[in-house]
Amino acid sequence: MALTDAILDFQAMPFGTAIAVGGPAIALGGLSLWFIRGYVNDHRRGSSNLPPLPEIPGLPVIGNLLQLKEKKPHKTFTKWAETYGPIYSIRTGASTVVVLNSNDVVKEAMVTRFSAISTRKLSKALKILTSDKSMVATSDYGEFHKTVKRHILTNILGPNAQKRHRSNRDTLVENTLQHIHAHVKNCPLQAVNLRHIFESELFGLALKQSLGKDVESIYVEELRTTLSREEIFKVLVNDPMEGAIDVDWRDFFPYLHWIPNKGFEMKIQQMDFRREAVMNALIQEQRKRTDSGEELKCYLDYLLSEAKTLSGKQIAMLLWEVIIETSDTTLVTTEWAMYELAKDPKRQDRLYQEIKKVCGLDKIKEENLPKLPYLTAIFHETLRKHSPVPIIPMRYVHENTQLGGYHVAAGSEIAINIYGCNMDKKLWENPEEWNPERFLNEKYDAMDLHKTMAFGGGKRVCAGALQASLLSCTTIGRLVQEFEWRLKDGEEDNVDTVALTARKLHPMQAMVKPRN
Ligand code: HEM
């Protein structure tokens, strides 16, 4: 039986960013593929008495890939949930993916059935870029994961570690504000690009927390060149994020792995080589410091003295993990919150009045946050409407299990649609509306970080939720305390996002006016 050519353009999702496949046209033929499909279906049903999952109808062999080509799979999944229910299965090439779209089934997967769903399914690009799962976020649940999650929480992200890194966060907020004051002074009629300023400050924080110091430039022996701070940012953050959303079409057809895809592999491997070279140079620089006896309260110094069983490469990956994770999601949330406030003068004023009442003439500090329920409501409503991780990195079902009353066979992949949970009409009134007031309801504890599913849950819950909330809330608070924000004309309609991520496609452009 001859099968039609198909142009694949599908996306899956790694760590807070995503994966996009711009695949070649592939011609597939042969009866053997039908047998593979038949086998997968029988296997899926298993011997359980539970009903099989609802299936989204698709095409032979490629399954639902063509239906997902519009680059926002989280939105397509959410639409399908309205017809097929909160849990259903799709086929992406040879793989069966079970998609979860409501808080109940997601919590079941993350907590009750976690033991059967505790491994990660990585794309080819991510396998290379994460040194085959050598990071907290991409590792399988097991001894390595438990050990490195303990390290990151003990030294950087847990509550005590956050106290030790307090001055770095204060500096970040202060610098951000100073840049905006300088912008207003130097070019008062020009819109400000908050992303440009805040992203650079987040990167500085990440370098200080992971390596002990921010850098201006570095000589990289393996590349035989000196890189500026901006170039370092590109190699460590921007390029890998782009690589992570790149998908090799063979990801969907593992039985075709023998077909070479040299262009793709070379691109990702070069990215990885440059990333590793720059990390090595940065670490070498700091090793000179540690060898001279100068100690800093950073992750590198901690790992060198406490994590004796880790290899040099593993340490470099764990340090890089902090850099890339610090630089993305907190920015996404803060930028969207400021976009929504700049668009909505009434709510912006309500926040300003709350801050004025609690802080008076003093600059808002982290200690004030528990007394600022409207500010935290703004943070959580932004996480809900613009969930920075729309789909959680794919998980893998390694033993037969059940979810939502359906049989889920070993070998399936699980896509957790956080965006779908946060847009569920059964749970949220008018979910499309940005309405922080919904979180002022007394059923929500003001300081609870998990009012929505944005940070995941269970044993793989986000390790950086506290840091993200402290940084984002304090920054939003200060920005509104010291300036009035208004979107530049035409900016309101700029709501598109980069591929399947929640990152604003065009940085927000806003006019700012200093308050007295
Ligand atoms: C608004 C900001 C953030 C959001 C919405 C967010 C969301 C998430 C989500 C959904 C997960 C996946 C949970 C899972 O696999 O089930 C995750 C994991 C993780 N996040 Fe975040 N994150 C944010 C900020 C951060 C920051 C700032 C850091 C570190 C600097 C961080 C570090 C991590 C780590 C290490 C994991 C892996 C946890 C594990 O696998 O056990 N996150 N995050």
From TrEMBL:
Q: How does it sit in the membrane?
A: Single-pass membrane protein
Q: Where in the cell is it found?
A: Plastid, Chloroplast outer membrane
Does the keyword Metal-binding belong to this entry? yes
A GO molecular function annotation here is: oxidoreductase activity, acting on paired donors, with incorporation or reduction of molecular oxygen, NAD(P)H as one donor, and incorporation of one atom of oxygen
Cofactor list:
heme
Residue ranges crossing the lipid bilayer per the database entry = 12-36
One BP annotation, GO: gibberellin biosynthetic process
PROSITE patterns attached to this UniProt entry? CYTOCHROME_P450 (PS00086)
Q: Which residues bind heme?
A: C462
What top-tier enzyme class does this entry carry? oxidoreductase
E.C. no: 1.14.14.86
The UniProt entry, under CDD domains, shows: CYP77_89
Keyword hit for Heme: yes
Annotated Gene Ontology cellular components are: chloroplast outer membrane; endoplasmic reticulum
Classification via InterPro entries: Cyt_P450, Cyt_P450_CS, Cyt_P450_E_grp-I, Cyt_P450_sf, KO_chloroplastic
What Pfam families does the record tag this protein with?
Answer: p450
| Keywords, sorted A to Z | Heme, Iron, Membrane, Metal-binding, Monooxygenase, Oxidoreductase, Plastid, Plastid outer membrane, Transmembrane, Transmembrane helix
Give the family this protein belongs to, as stated in its UniProt record. Answer: Belongs to the cytochrome P450 family.
Q: What does this protein do?
A: Catalyzes three successive oxidations of the 4-methyl group of ent-kaurene giving kaurenoic acid, a key step in gibberellins (GAs) biosynthesis. GAs, which are involved many processes, including stem elongation, play a central role in plant development.
This protein is called ent-kaurene monooxygenase
The species is: Nyssa sinensis
